[in-house]
Amino acid sequence: EGQLVESGGGLVHPGESLRLSCATSGFTFSSHALSWVRQAPGTGLEWVSIISGSGDNTYHADSVKGRFTISKDSSRSTLYLQMNALRAEDTAVYYCVRSDCDNIFCRLFVSWGQGTLVTVSS
Amino acid sequence: DIQMTQSPSTLSASVGDRVTITCRASQNIRDWLAWYQQKPGKAPKLLIHRASGLQSGAPSRFSGSGFGTEFTLTISSLQPDDSATYFCQQYDTLTTFGPGTKVHIK
Question: Do A44 and B99 touch (CB under 8 A)?
Answer without folding.
Answer: yes
